[in-house]
Amino acid sequence: MRDRIYKMIASIFYIGYLPVAPGTLGSLAAIILYYFICYSAAIMTIVTLAVIILGFLTAGRVEKIFREKDPGEIVIDEFAGMLISLYRLPPTMGYVVTGFLLFRFFDIVKPKPISSLEKLKGSMGIMSDDIVAGVYANIILQVVYILNLLCRH
After folding, report:
1. Most buried residue among 49, 65, 107, 117 by CB atoms closer than 10 A?
2. Helices and strands, counts by H and E, the chain
């Protein structure tokens, strides 16, 4: 029973079991949640931290269950990374689409140090590369957001 709960959480309610692009679908699922939580900084912070913590608690355990390094069914890492990408940004189509594209770019291309983080064992390796990919995307989007604000005034 415990293994089923870990799998459900790490796969974001079994999205990771879908046969096509589970990581991309996990990222898209995070966007849906983002639209519900983006209007409150406190709620967004709590939810994002909770997802990250749940990811660290479940991803490594599910990896052991599958006896496979970072199995595709685990998408909580993409889910967390996408939430980080959009953290404290306005819910406009431009920021959301750009955030999605930037996050997926960094997650797939894995520039340094993301590529070295992926090599870590267990939950640390599964979660940390996507967290950093999300941070990279968010930094770029925050700069764009600030520049947009400065240009308006």
Report:
1. 107
2. 7, 0
Amino acid at 104: R
CB 32 within 8 A of CB 47: no
CA distance 39 to 62: 33
Under 8 Å between Cβ of 141 and 95: yes
The CA distance from 104 to 48, in Å, is: 18
Contact (Cβ atoms closer than 8 angstroms) between residue 114 and residue 129 = yes
Which of 50, 47, 52, 55 lies closest to 11 in space, CA to CA? 55
For 75, what's the count of Cα atoms within 13 Å in the CB-facing half-sphere? Answer: 26
Q: With 0-12 CB in 10 A as exposed, 13-18 as middle and 19+ as buried, what is 8?
A: middle
Cα separation, 90 vs 123, whole angstroms:
30
User: Residues 6 or more apart from 140 whose CB is under 8 A from it?
Assistant: 102
- Residue pLDDT, tens place only, 35-79: 999 999 999 999 999 999 999 999 999 999 999 999 999 999 999
How many beta carbons lie within 10 A of that of residue 37, not counting itself? 18
